[in-house]
Amino acid sequence: MESERNGLGNKRAHIIKRDNRWAVKKEGNTKATKVYETQNAAVKGAQKLRSNGHDIIIHKKDGSILNWQKKS
To answer: Is this model's pTM higher than 0.85 or not?
Structure first.
């Protein structure tokens, strides 16, 4: 889906702080794919996307990037 791609053709999903929980949000989408209680749970949940060709970008509470996992 083109809305999930950046200008380079890569698909990305971000793990971001949302209120008191953590959301997995595909780049270009307006809504989160799923929301989890902890950052670790969100990372585990996002691994399915990684196997489907998405990079997973894990953000800190302040929004800065903590880790960038390249697609497998």
So the answer is: no
